[in-house]
Amino acid sequence: MAGDGSVWRLVGPLAELSQRRCRLLHSSFGRGSDVCLFYLQGRFSAMDARCAHSGGPLCDGDIEEADGVLQVFCPWHDYDFDIQTGKSQTGLQQQVHSVKVEDGNVYVKHASLLSLEPFPPASKS
Q1: Helix, strand or coil, per DSSP, at residue 114
Q2: 125 domain residue, yes or no
Q3: Rounded to 10 degrees, what is the CA torsion of 36, 39, 41, 44?
Q4: What is the 8-class DSSP label of residue 118?
Q5: 18 lies in a domain?
């Protein structure tokens, strides 16, 4: 376990997750901890789903390759982020997460539970 509480989280089968370029993984911690899972050029990568600039939804952004670097562009203000490193030409840094494929399943290293479906709202006691 990493110092931040991150552990390998099963997110789903390789056969399903490799069918789309980007999927939103919902976090049990709430929207601010959601993750974008990318599948591009035969490999997975993951980063926080909310733009470090002002919280735009990166999973809705355009994905482009420039000079051999795959980037996602925030749909709100067009900030760019390298999908592998999370670095932006603006100087911002997006949090990236390790991804592994094992026994036909995809895992993301994260502190919260991750799901392809939203978690039910927490009940107020």
Answers
A1: strand
A2: no
A3: 80
A4: P
A5: yes
Q: What is the pLDDT along the chain (125 residues), one digit of tens a residue?
A: 446 789 999 999 999 999 999 999 999 999 999 999 999 999 999 999 999 999 999 999 999 998 889 999 999 999 999 999 999 999 999 999 999 999 999 999 999 999 999 998 866 66
Contacts of 80 (CB under 8 A, 6+ apart): 71, 72, 73, 74, 88, 89, 90
Residue 77 lies in a domain: yes
Token pair recorded at residue 116: 């392809």
CATH of the domain at 40: 2.102.10.10
Q: Burial, 42: exposed, middle or buried (Cβ in 10 Å; 0-12, 13-18, 19+)? A: exposed
Number of domains in the chain: 1
Handedness of CA 78, 28, 13, 16 (dihedral sign): negative
For residue 15, being part of any structural domain is answered with yes
